[in-house]
């Protein structure tokens, strides 16, 4: 699956070069390009992406200032002609640092790096796992997760303590990394911890006071997995 990305650089020649580079790889889906950092900031707030190729030296707002202004920044690859920005960039937990002029070979190395980082956004550890949220890795215990909600390229994890955690992993990729059998898909936008389901109807599942939709596509799968085994045990 391609990673969504945005390209921000105030030099149109650099934008054209990176459009060409991005078009040569199947790993990236370019959503927008910007020369104005304020326009890019407004876009990223409304339509978050997985990767941001970010120029450092720009008028009005530098790339580093823009990065600090994002509450949940994507994976960032800094672009600059000035190597002195590298240390400050890595202090902000950027994924990579490309020194202009950027060769295709070096660009592809950066793409490989962010691809590996994207796949490791969720790290399993025994009865718990880590997710990347708010520029840090947060440990969550499987039994504490009530359900997981899809929000475009993000997912929101709802936990028993009433808190939510937003991570830049889409629901399909997250589902593939969680233990099989523990969570059940009830809707294209919801993945539910089976242990916390209190009741099931033809249209919804209930977890405590929370009601979630049960899509027709998933209804048979949910009932066969959760209800049928219990009925068979009762018959014996």
Automatic annotation (TrEMBL):
Q: Which part of the chain is the Response regulatory domain?
A: 4-115
Name the keywords, alphabetized.
Answer: DNA-binding, Phosphoprotein
- State whether keyword Membrane applies: no
Q: Which residues form a coiled coil?
A: none
HTH LytTR-type domain segment(s): 129-200
Spans traversing the lipid bilayer: none
GO MF annotation: an example: DNA binding
Q: Which Gene3D superfamilies match?
A: 3.40.50.2300, LytTr DNA-binding domain
Report the residues modified as 4-aspartylphosphate.
55
The name under which this protein is listed is: DNA-binding response regulator
